[in-house]
Amino acid sequence: MATAELAGKHLVLGMTGGIACYKIAELTRLLTKAGATVQVVMTEAATQFITPVTMQALSGRPVYTSQWDARVPNNMAHIDLSREADAIVIAPASTDFLAKLAHGMADDLLSTLCVARDCPLLVVPAMNRQMWQNPATQRNVTQLRADGIEVLGPDSGPQACGETGDGRMLEAVATFEAIASFFSPKILSGRRVLLTAGPTFEPLDPVRGITNRSSGKMGFALARAAQQAGAEVHLVAGPVALETPWGVFREDVQTAQQMHDAVMRSVADADIFIGVAAVADWRVDHASEQKIKKTAERALPTFTFVENPDILASVAKLPHPPFTVGFAAESGDLELHGEEKRVRKNVPLLIGNLGPLTFGMDDNEVILFEAAGATKLPRADKQTLARALIVEIARRLPDTSLIR
């Protein structure tokens, strides 16, 4: 399925030598699935790790490896290949190739077309931890950033050499998201977004608890869309099985009280607060410290409930709150209950949906409630809807919301 950021984009995907070349097969698949055309250019070293035939099959285009390729009528592949490109992405970018770029060297097809380009250049480093930490490499990376080249990563973790540390290439999905983010309009540039997502879990005993069916998909989609729009995003997540969006700082919590405390610790630094999480309204007054046993002699257990803190209302009542956006999941009468909740919580914008029909689903349909009236957005997949909601939120930001 095409995505708005990458649909119709033409990318030159340059591959240098390294075991991380195997990740580029999946990256190419993701890019083409998103609607981008991918022109692969490989160094001779890259062909030792994955074949041009494989990359041609995945990209659907002939692969270039030589500056003297006769398929280019004027024998100027280093000029022609980049002229139609929206960007050049070097992945994996080896230590050697980063050094070439930093010093303007042009001794093969890939390095020459990078020097001769008139489009943006993104590099995705991949190397041993000691190679990454080497002072020369760090100087080169600093120079690349100063030259306006986007450096994506690296990650930290186990490496092919058996060591662990910085230098590992971003995984294919993270690289894909970083490229998509690069092309997204930065309508929230300079803004700080604090966002909650997912359910909460209120324990009854060490093994049981009360929760709900929220998957967190809408909240995570909004966190991703806000980051891609240029915001610094702090995501407070309840217990969900979702990958953290690229570039987003994630803080995991379990209970409503923990989520409330995490939000209140960070809200003073936020320009925008988006409360997407399905927060439990009540918790057990005194959860059992031991598993509650079922026996023939024991009567059914009884529980006393107390009210959890209202996170959305707590943020809205601050002396100088961020622009506050709430979510309401209703089982019926959405138009009535959505506006009533917006007024009761005293928030400028509330986004309502029929929760039981959308929990766990990949698409959604919402209504925006504000003082000026209600606006329905068409049903769409949650990531498309998230991008639309970020546009709607950005339109409503007061001019002073950047300054806190």
Describe the fold and architecture.
- Helix content is 33%, strand content 23%.
- The protein is α/β, with parallel strands linked by helices and 404 residues long.
- It folds into two domains: 174 residues, Flavin prenyltransferase-like (Rossmann fold); 211 residues, 3-Layer(aba) Sandwich (Rossmann fold).
- The protein is elongated, with a radius of gyration of 25 Å.
- The model has no long low-confidence stretch (mean pLDDT 90).
- One of its GO terms (biological process) is coenzyme A biosynthetic process.
- Pfam families: DFP, Flavoprotein.
Topology:
Blueprint: E1 10-15, H1 21-33, E2 37-42, H2 52-59, H3 77-83, E3 87-93, H4 95-102, H5 109-115, E4 121-125, H6 129-133, H7 135-146, E5 150-151, E6 155-158, E7 164-168, H8 172-183, E8 192-197, E9 202-203, E10 209-210, H9 217-228, E11 232-237, E12 249-252, H10 256-266, E13 272-275, E14 282-284, E15 305-307, H11 311-316, E16 323-330, H12 334-345, E17 349-354, H13 355-358, E18 363-364, E19 367-370, E20 373-376, E21 380-381, H14 382-396
Helix pairs in contact: 1-2, 1-8, 3-5, 4-7, 9-14
